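Hi W., the inosine 5'-triphosphate complex you wanted:
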Amino acid sequence: MTVTFVTTNPGKVNEAREYLAEPVEQLDFDTPEIQSADLGAIAAHKARAAYEHAGEPVFVDDAGLFVDAFDGFPGPYSSYVHDTVGVERVWRLTSEEDDRAASFRGVVAYCDGQEFEATPEPVDREDRRGRDLAADERGAATTDEQVRTDDGDGDALPVKLFYGVVPGEIVAPRGDGGFGYDPIFEYDDRTFAEMDPDEKNAVSHRGRALAKFADWLAERDTPE
Ligand code: ITT
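Structure:
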């Protein structure tokens, strides 16, 4: 089964192709995004909108850079900050701080219009933040979730979420690879922009989420 990755970002598609056994096709559509402090909620909404647009099984990805010294900013606003302030100035702002720790967090969200076991919609909860932080410390991903409702009435399409987190540090830009904030995000002495795509995938937020998505997809019944 071909899975359709609805994204405007070809860098994300290259990374997904490294991971999934199924052929991945990009559908270049700028899916409307809700404003929320919770990447899971944004991704779930995005996945439903993408499915309604495409009319076939889809997945989307929502990611952000969370700088500890700024209480997680730019986080869910990473795209806006990237396009307005830019990577170089995010580095300069962070360079004034003693603590330059940061994490990339990402959520892959799948929707195919089919029923599968679901749990309540993610909301901006303290316990979720606590789990994310604990996961950061371990350098591991948070738990995955299946979500059904966006308003509590149970009518919304089920969505399956896969989380990935990677801890790192903000540094002066280095490297020509990757995309977005990769040149200023250092993991294990190298920036993500200094890594090959497969090296980045092996440790990145997206790689961790995609690995779990790939396992789930492989085990799951193919929809009609
Ligand atoms: P979509 O069409 O899939 O939404 P996007 O590039 O707008 O593509 P996001 O909203 O998820 O994707 O990304 C928020 C910002 O974070 C954006 O500026 C990305 O370039 C950046 N970003 C996301 N994943 C990244 C990664 O793995 N490495 C570096 N920057 C990343």
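The helical segments are 10-19, 39-54, 78-84, 87-95, 126-138, 197-203, 205-219.

W.
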